[in-house]
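Input structure tokens:
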């Protein structure tokens, strides 16, 4: 048995090994565009490892926004139904091991280190392998070794050429589509939808969140070509939001036999409650419900209700403190900025906002600032410890262009301290948004801040 210090040393060595390969999440857009994505390496690697991904059923989830939330809800419901449920997500928020979970528990540092050693001989025979491909392989292998009954696998980027797209799932799920990663996925919604639709397999059911017409036309065309029955949430599965508060929100979900002109809440309707906030999460919950039903797995409504109410998905309109409010979000394109704006209206109407913001180089920062401008007292631009992050000075220029008072504050921990200081004056909301890497650092800084306050209180006692 290794000591804690030895385990952490082995874990850090494993991370160093993983990051020694090509990691496109750390590459600049100019390099990302030139990348030659294909699935051949992934098929070869998994064959060398015995194709563990074929030993359990999979629910595969792609989309621009909402895919992580949907994946988390589906996995939580499977666990509540008595399944040993795997969940593979990316990126992680605070710890790399969050990417690979079984029954809500991330893989341990020791287990990850051991798995990395196990795959090294197979990896040595494959040139040009990437960090994400290796991480995906580790997830598939861990799920097999843990004997999962089912796994929920979130797509990393796009869909068609994503490393996860070697699976034949029970159901393919496509959440809300909007403009993001355009340099790689295309400049039109139709092109982006085409890449996401790449996860649709011959004869495998598809569930889609409500989509704009341009995107939906592509999904319908690909689904028809591949004889994949398509369930469209909002058409084939009707949902309606009911009450919402900072404690959570409820929705009713019903098959489309209930017409839009009749009362939605009928004896056949299922009432779902989720702790996740924002109207967009109601759509995600309805999509997750439809995905579970289309999967063919036995997941009773009672288990879905239990799983949804217990789901955890931090940094998505996560309220860390109610007064004065401290909120974490990861809105990083114009569509999610609009959804965040609506959530602010729903839960904190007419409250001024101090925004902590950082973003990577390929984001429409000016578009996001324009969406939020009516709410913003001040933007504190900062830079996460990430190679693709824009410099704070560049963000400052964009804030000035948007006509919003701004200042550059780095590191992220200092930006949080400054925001908390400013919020005292008029009880403004402290909001972190933009890059998930910035929000992750804000979350870590908040935990240190809270711990320090508790420690000081104990010392005073």
């Amino acid at each position: 048995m290794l000591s804690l210090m030895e385990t952490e040393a082995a874990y850090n060595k494993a991370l160093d090994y993983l990051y020694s390969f090509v990691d496109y999440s750390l590459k600049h857009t100019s390099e990302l565009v030139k990348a030659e994505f294909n699935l051949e390496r992934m098929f070869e690697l998994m064959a060398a490892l015995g194709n563990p991904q074929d030993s359990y059923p999979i629910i595969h989830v792609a989309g621009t926004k909402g895919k992580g939330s949907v994946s988390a809800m589906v996995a939580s419901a499977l666990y509540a139904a008595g399944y040993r449920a795997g969940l593979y997500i990316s990126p992680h928020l605070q710890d790399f091991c969050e990417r690979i979970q079984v029954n809500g528990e991330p893989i341990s540092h020791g287990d990850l280190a051991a798995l990395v050693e196990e795959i090294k001989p197979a990896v040595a025979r494959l040139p040009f392998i990437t960090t994400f491909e290796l991480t995906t392989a580790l997830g598939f292998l861990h799920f097999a070794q843990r004997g999962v009954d089912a796994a929920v696998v979130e797509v990393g980027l796009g869909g068609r050429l994503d490393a996860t797209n070697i699976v034949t799932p029970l159901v393919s799920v496509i959440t809300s589509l909007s403009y993001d990663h355009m340099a790689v996925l295309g400049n039109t919604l139709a092109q982006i939808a085409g890449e996401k639709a790449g996860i649709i397999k011959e004869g495998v059911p598809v569930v889609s969140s409500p989509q704009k017409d341009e995107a939906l036309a592509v999904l319908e065309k690909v689904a028809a070509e591949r004889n994949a029955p398509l369930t469209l949430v909002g058409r084939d599965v009707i949902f309606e939001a009911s009450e919402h508060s900072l404690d959570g929100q409820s929705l009713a979900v019903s098959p489309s036999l209930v017409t839009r002109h009749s009362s939605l809440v009928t004896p056949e309707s299922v009432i779902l409650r989720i702790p996740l906030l924002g109207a967009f999460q109601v759509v995600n919950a309805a999509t997750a419900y439809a995905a579970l039903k289309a999967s063919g797995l036995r997941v009773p409504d009672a288990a879905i209700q239990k799983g949804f109410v217990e789901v955890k998905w931090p940094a998505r309109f996560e309220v860390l403190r109610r007064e004065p409010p401290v909120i974490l979000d990861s809105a990083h394109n114009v569509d999610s900025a609009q959804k965040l704006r609506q959530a602010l209206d729903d839960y904190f109407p007419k409250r001024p906002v101090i925004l902590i913001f950082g973003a990577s180089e390929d984001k429409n920062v000016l578009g996001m600032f324009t969406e939020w401008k009516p709410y913003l007292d001040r933007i504190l631009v900062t830079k996460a410890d990430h190679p693709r992050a824009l410099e704070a000075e560049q963000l400052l220029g964009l804030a000035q262009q948007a006509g919003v008072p701004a200042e550059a504050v780095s590191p992220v921990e200092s930006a949080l301290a400054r925001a908390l200081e400013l919020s005292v004056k008029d009880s403004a909301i402290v909001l972190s948004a933009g890059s998930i890497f910035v929000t992750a650092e804000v979350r870590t800084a908040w935990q240190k801040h809270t711990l320090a306050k508790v420690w000081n209180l104990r010392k005073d006692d």
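The longest strand covers residues 237-245. Residues 257-265 have pLDDT under 50 and may be disordered.
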